[in-house]
Amino acid sequence: ITRSFASFRLALTALCLAAAATAHAASAPAEEPSTVVLSDSLDYDDVKKESVFVGNVIVTRGLMNLHADRVTVRQLPDGTQQGVAIANKGKLVRLRQERPETYETLEGTGLRAEYDDKKGEFVLIGQAVVTRSVCGKPFDTVRGQRVRYNQNNGTYQAEGGAGSAAPDGRVRSVAEPRAKADAAIAECRAREGKA
Questions:
Q1: What is the pTM (predicted TM-score) of this model?
Q2: CB neighbours (10 Å) of residue 168?
């Protein structure tokens, strides 16, 4: 499973950076993409160093996007940030990261998403599902009450509970053999003439 989820680590790292609306400058790549946030309203408090985006919020950063009903980003005194994205009743926060070089797409959903820049941690909470697709076909999926990823040490955790996206409040993980994903990538390359 560790090999199957290596792609999750790379894609979730990018999602973590974007969920907080801007990356911490010390860890930013040389050519960091711009972050665009669309919303029905924005309230910024310079004293609290807090931005609150409300209403059909769409955060786009490079090949990543996040959809939520409310996103709050707070800058801490040390320059790091914490972000929270929530969905209205009956809806889910949606994250999507494309990795065209490997023909992969990572998609995550949950009732709430949290990011802590200092800890390097990203969490989907409530009906949490993370799916990795290769060449448009789903390959690996993790479901639980909470799916947590730490970009600093490259680990992830999934927890069950009453709000799990898996039956009986359990964690459910499905990982396809790496050979199948490699075959799908080869098929995509062949279609594009990049074999």
A1: 0.75
A2: 7
